[in-house]
User: Fold this.
Amino acid sequence: MSDTPTRAGFVALIGAPNAGKSTLLNQLVGSKVSIVSRKVQTTRALVRGIAMAGQAQIIFVDTPGIFKPRRRLDRAMVTSAWGGAADADVVCLLIDARRGIDAEAEAILEKLGEVRQPKILILNKIDLVARDSLLALAAAANEKAGFDHTFMISALRGDGVDDLNTTLAGLMPEGPWLYPEDQVSEAPLRVLAAEITREKIYDRLHQELPYDAHVVTESWENRKDGSVRIEQTVFVARESQRKIVLGKGGQTIRAIGQAARVEIAEAAECPVHLFLFVKVRENWADDPERYREMGLEFPKGAY
Ligand SMILES: Nc1nc2c(ncn2[C@@H]2O[C@H](COP(=O)(O)OP(=O)(O)OP(=O)(O)O)[C@@H](O)[C@H]2O)c(=O)[nH]1
Assistant:
């Protein structure tokens, strides 16, 4: 029995592509909830993971595309990233200690100066750099943005991650949990499952599909035999793209489904039955409704 009050809140995790956000989330959340990839900007979803630390529920909100947005979708992500940061209870900036503060990090640091919530600087990949340069880096970043806490971690090895988790837990506002405990693992998994499928489509078809297809996990049904039945819809912009995704006699979508199923099963740690549907939704990349569904704001102006 514990009288400790429950806490729940949002943490915006900001970091350049490859800074190690996914690796850190995997450590904090304790299971594979985000795709670790050398490819940049693999991330599309907003809630990336939910960690439980004692009586605190820490919901990590991802901030993809905050660095050098190119396409309209990416620009929407930036707006949403800063919007996410504004809504979050705590803002964390993850910096690859080996890369240091480059022009992009510099711009982020400047912007962070205006953020009112508690700010945490996390220097990652400390296994790759000398201690002296870490201290200099921490000092330089703090001079620009004035962080409330600074952590030096190796997300890969897990060094420093527990301390970070404890501090984050203490910064969460008191209140009821926002996700029922039994859904904590599933909520990000649905998102992850969609990302995995999207990545498999990208792996096979990035030359033929001018824009990423968009994947939504429509249903997630835990079955009595311990397996899970997942239905996903792949949205493409045109009928011609639908044909490409399906492939001759459905062979492309079958291969995508098989590859995705293996990886989703690994992440969910149970057998998976995956059903994919491909639908045409014209101009989805320019459709304000789609942005809203993804929790994004439609970017104004032409790009
Ligand atoms: N040596 C070392 N490598 C790390 C560490 N953390 C992450 N990496 C590596 O850095 C690379 C990028 O890590 P990710 O976690 O995919 O980075 P990310 O910020 O999520 O990247 P995006 O999803 O592309 O934005 C991977 O190869 C990781 O294994 C660390 O603490 N030490």
